[in-house]
Amino acid sequence: MIIPVILSGGSGTRLWPLSRRLHPKQFLNLVNEKTLFQETIIRLPKETTDPLIICNEAHRFIVAEQLRQIKSKNKGIILEPIGKNTAPAIAIAAMNLLNEENDPTLLVLSADHLIEDDEQFDESIKIAKKISDKGKMVALGVRPHKPEIGYGYIKVDKSQENKYYNIISFKEKPNLTVAKKYLESRNYYWNSGIFVFKASTYLKELEKYEPEIFSICKRSLIKSTKDLDFIHIDNKTFYDCPDKSIDYAVMEKTKEGVVVPFLGKWSDIGSWESLWDSKSKDNNNNVIEGDVELSKVKNSFVHSSSRLVVVNDLSDLIIIDTKDALLVSSKYNSQDIKKIVNKLKKSSRSESDNHQKIYRSWGNFDLVDYSEDSQIKHILVYPGGTLPLLEHKKIVKHWVIVKGVALITCGDKVFQLKQNESTLIPNGVAHKLINLEKESLRIIEIQTGKYLGNDDIKRLEDK
User: Fold this and answer.
1) Domain ranges in the chain?
2) Where residue 51 falls among pLDDT bands split at 50, 70, 90?
3) How many helices and strands, by DSSP H and E, does the chain display?
4) What is the pLDDT of residue 116?
């Protein structure tokens, strides 16, 4: 059997403002009803077992909830305190699974890719599995159909026609002239970032070429702790790990690297242009999402999250309107959005990291409106979810139940509230809320007071 290792630590900054650091593209339903992360789990070949997930610690509740939604079991969720690229992440996964299993074959996948030919994908993985059993490290190479400048390439040796080819070299993202030459030569494949190899093979090659990464990852895992499905690696040790991709750390150096071609449709959804390319379009080649009206517009992607967006006599644009940010960009330079997000980070703009909707272990909340002395939140509590016991010195709360039944503790009183019922939570009174029902609970929370800062919270109990 093959154990999938799902890498879900990316930040997806090129798809800002929909994708943000604390809720990146892999956790969004950009293409289908399911998120990219969920689609990655669902399409796993039949020959695979339950997956092992690797994600940023900040995304742990999103991962757990999205797995719950599709009823997916897993071999654990490894939490990274900081992203150190793919080589350390895969090393931690390989070490963890080698301890639990008898040298398993790993299928390493990114959680934010789009693959539309499941049968062809399954067949490529079967071929890769047989080759990896011989000690080879297999990279899935996608046959390019256009001169793409947003992907890395792998040059292969085609002197012997086979089901796989020896790797000559890895190539960085080229300019358009070089990409056209790659396409014409037919000796280059897009680097999909999908790999198949034995856990022991990867670790042996990593220790040979990057002993520091190997050593730090081993110590980080030895010092790890478990909490339900979560595996917390040692933060202090892992912070010193070099930041390197598997390509730089191992695949460019090893003599065991080969490419198995994948002939199906694949995309890493790495830009608004690539997302536009993957979606159905109207008669003018536009992708339209939300409340949008267009006139004399062609070849554009226009998305509205909450309000009417009207565009007149413009073409080849990306227009993404969210509750707190508006992006207007040329479609053909949408790769540069990452630079803009970096500027926002340097300016300490919260919009680079957060949506208005914030996720927690118990559910999520959306800041609907705010002023100096009041703010309104829409709160969703998962079945069995608990808002922790706390109190405020200055903030007064009003809870209105929109849907469901809430069990509320307020001081020494414990009572239930149903749909259309409400209660007042005075300042200085300990309170908490539990959803005991099998359906999600929806609440409107109105906060009032002269001070509404997040530091006006005294946590008395927090699971």
Assistant:
1) 2-267, 284-346, 357-461
2) very high
3) 11, 30
4) 85
CA proximity to 204, closest of 94, 347, 64, 328:
94
Nearest to 121 by CA among 276, 4, 8, 27: 4
pLDDT at 70: 93
Mean predicted confidence (pLDDT) in 434-442: 94
Q: Are 93 and 109 in contact (CB under 8 A)?
A: no
Could you tell me the two tokens for 441?
């609970």
Q: What pLDDT sits at residue 161?
A: 67
Q: Token pair 């191992």 is at which residue?
A: 250
* Architecture of the domain whose range is 2-267: Alpha-Beta Complex (3.90)
Inter-CA distances, 444 with 354, 401, 422, Å:
21, 7, 9
Q: Residue 145, Cα to own-chain centre: how many angstroms?
A: 26
Smallest CA-to-CA distance from 146 within 188, 113, 114, 195 is with 188
3-state secondary structure 104-129: CEEEEEECCCEECCHHHHHHHHHHHH
Tell me the average pLDDT across 126-143. Answer: 94
Structural contact between residues 140 and 164, judged by C-beta atoms closer than 8 angstroms: no
- Tokens at 163, concatenated: 């089901």
Please state which of the four CATH numbers 1.10.8.60, 2.60.120.10, 3.40.50.800, 3.30.70.1230 is assigned to the domain occupying 357-461: 2.60.120.10
Whole-number Å distance between alpha carbons of 409 and 209: 58
Residue 104: asked if its preceding bond is cis (omega within 30°), the reply is no
User: Is residue 434 over pLDDT 90?
Assistant: yes
- Tell me how far apart the alpha carbons of residues 304 and 322 are, in angstroms, rounded to a whole number: 6
Taking CA atoms, 348 is separated from 96, 215, 230, 234, in Å, by 37, 35, 30, 28
Q: 463 pLDDT exceeds 60?
A: no
Q: What is the largest CA-CA distance in the chain?
A: 80
Instruction: Assess whether the region 2-267 and the region 357-461 belong to the same CATH fold.
Output: no
The first and second tokens of residue 29, run together, are 């339903």
C-alpha angle 374/375/381, rounded to 5°? 140
User: What is the C-alpha to C-alpha distance for residues 352 and 347, in angstroms, rounded to an integer?
Assistant: 10
